[in-house]
Amino acid sequence: MTSIIKDILERESYSKEEILRLLKCEGEERTLLFTKSAEIKEKYIGRKVWFRGLIEFSNICGKDCLYCGIRKGNKDLHRYNLSDDEILEAARFAYINRYGSIALQSGELESPFVTDRIENLLHRIKVMSNGELGITLSVGEQEPDVYRRWFEAGAHRYLLRVESTNKELYSKIHPNDDKHSFTRRLECLKILQDTGYQTGTGVMIGLPFQTTDDLADDLLFMREFDIDMCGMGPYIEHADTPLIKYSGELMPLRQRFDLTLKMIAVIRLMMKDINIVAATALQAIDPIGREKAVKIGANIVMPNITPGKYRDSYKLYDNKPCTDDSAEDCQSCLEARISLADAEIIYGEWGDSAHYNTRRKKV
Ligand code: SAM
Question: Cα of 175 to ligand 1 centre, how many Å?
Answer without folding.
Answer: 15
